[in-house]
Amino acid sequence: MRKISWMILATLFFFVSCGLFYPPLYDTAIVEKGSQGGSGGGGGTGTIWKKVSVTTSLSGAVFTNFNCITAVGASGYLCSSIDGGYTWNNTQPTNFNYYAMQSIAWTGSYLIATSGGGIHVYDGTNWTLGTNGSYVSQCAFDGIHYVAVDISGNILACMTNPPVSGWTNPATAGTALYGICYDGGGSKFLAVGTTNGIYSCVDSIVMTSSAWNFSTVGSTNLYSVCYSAPLATLVAVGEGGAILYSTDHGALWYPAVSPTTNKLSRVIYNQTLGKFFAVGNSGAFISSQNGTNNWGQAMIDIPVTENLSDIACYGSKFVLIGWLGSAYVSP
Question: Residue 88's closest CA among 327, 287, 331, 277?
């Protein structure tokens, strides 16, 4: 009876702390401490990182507020932490149906997870499968439109809240798409994939337009793209450590000198620190003040050889996640 009561209290504490409702959570993770020291571009504000075993291969993570982070992984796992990533609880929502999860995003109102089965939406009470898809890679939101891409090249769009129904398929790229972002300064969505190029569409016609503009850039596959509003700069990353940037909302793209030849899987902009950060294979973790040059190794003071799939941040707090099921947590 005491054990059951503790589980109920722990779950209620999670509800209050994060303002979200999740199914009962299990499997406390294991923490491995880092060592003093460290150097590089600055991934956090302290000098001791921690490696945490989350017990499943992880593909996406997002903070919903300070200390509350949600991640997704293989076999339909949903992993949650209410202490900034130091301890985790895992569950497999029925709606996830053991799918290979791809990414997760927080709109401020809804959690949106993508998977081999489609788009899953959490409205504060339940997870619902919004639309089927062929391995949906990622979803972006501009405040009105939800736009997602999948590895078959489909571009999916929705204006319904919550985005469970009303999804359309206005455009098809004809090649795998892996990443998408919204450029608020240019009022457009941009998607990247295996075409050595970038697709874009202005937000006002994204629900109906079948003619996304395509720009050939670089000579390698791209996996992630993000926009910095303060810098009015777009950055895309990909195979072989490729880094591309644009300062005119995607009209022209230029290569940046990369400090790594490892595949880069995700790029984000941290407004608190005023930097771009990217992660990738063999523990790649790099940063740049402006995205256009001076990319270098970001600070992390424990060895990382795992292929990193995503990076989540809240202020100066960072959590890097990997394909072997680890989370690397900054001070």
Answer: 327
For the chain, first and last CA: distance in Å? 36
Closest CA to 250 of 194, 193, 202: 202
Phi and psi angles of residue 164, each rounded to the nearest 5 degrees, phi first: -95, -45
d(CA 291, CA 196) in angstroms, rounded, equals: 19
Query: 188-206 as b/e, with b when 16 or more CB fall inside 10 Å?
Result: bbbbbbbbbbbbbbebeeb
pLDDT digits (tens, 9 = 90+) for 44-80: 444 689 999 998 899 999 999 989 999 999 999 999 9
Residue 35, pLDDT above cutoff 60: no
Q: Collapsing DSSP states into helix, strand and coil, what is residue 68?
A: strand
* Strands laid side by side in the 317-322 sheet: 30-33, 50-53, 326-329, 317-322, 308-314
Give Rg (Cα) of the chain. 19
Both tokens of 247, joined, read 């300062």
| CATH of region 29-329 | 2.130.10.10
| 309 vs 288: CA distance, rounded Å | 19
Angle of CA points 195, 185, 122, to nearest 5°? 75
**Which pTM does this prediction carry?**
0.88
For tokens 């504490």, name the residue. 13
Beta bridge partner(s), residue 189: 182, 201
